[in-house]
Amino acid sequence: DTEVTQTPKHLVMGMTNKKSLKCEQHMGHRAMYWYKQKAKKPPELMFVYSYEKLSINESVPSRFSPECPNSSLLNLHLHALQPEDSALYLCASSVTRGETQYFGPGTRLLVL
Amino acid sequence: GENVEQHPSTLSVQEGDSAVIKCTYSDSASNYFPWYKQELGKRPQLIIDIRSNVGEKKDQRIAVTLNKTAKHFSLHITETQPEDSAVYFCAASKGNTDKLIFGTGTRLQVFP
Across residues A90-111, what is the average pLDDT? Predict the structure, then answer.
């Protein structure tokens, strides 16, 4: 398997809901990333995990909670989101930190 | 902090013509420069990258050049085809950090 996969592809949630985004890779990569991308803008880094430990948090609000249960899986738990959090959420992975990052297809999130 | 400027924001070319997109970075310590292509509704896809110990890299119709002194790097696409139409993002990072600083993107349209 040479791809990063993400589920779900689309998600609609209310401001009081709790939901989770899932990212998976089976390439043996030990660094995984969450990005947020608004329309017509570049991706913005949110979190970095290296060897299953959180290494970078780009001052993301606590309503976004990342989790890395194992080396292949990365989750993003969502709670009490705001409409302005609507965006494409991209996961990426790389062999190790500082190496080429490969992106998943993203989850398109709409917060009502 | 690091800043990456990208020009032009839109570029329209006739099929078969060449396209050039230019980026300028601010941090002289940056040493890794990837280019991503993002089609509408799809993931950013790495098309070529270059490290600071190399001045030029080619892959079929795509080439990237790097001028470390001027802190410029450019993407060159020759013999453009309609399927090259997409948004192209340049990015820069330094050392073994994970943070890719993206340019603002160039929307390339190739007309048949």
Answer: 94
B10 burial level (CB within 10 Å; 0-12, 13-18, 19+): exposed
Q: Each residue of B26-72: pLDDT tens digit?
A: 999 999 999 999 999 899 999 999 998 889 999 999 999 999 999 99
Are B86 and B21 in contact by the 8 Å Cβ rule? The answer is: no
Cβ-contact B86, B38 below 8 angstroms: yes
**A96 contacts in chain B (CB < 8 Å):** 96
Note whether A101 contacts B100, CB cutoff 8 Å: yes
Query: A95 — contact with chain B (CB < 8 Å)?
Result: no
- Distance (Å, rounded) from C-alpha A68 to C-alpha A57? 13
Task: Report the distance separating Cα A87 and Cα A72, nearest Å.
Answer: 24
Phi, psi at A85, each rounded to 5°: -80, -5
> Please, are residues A74 and A66 in contact by the beta-carbon 8 Å criterion?
yes
What distance in Å separates residue B49's CA from the closest CA in chain A? 8
Is A105 touching B (CB cutoff 8 A)? yes
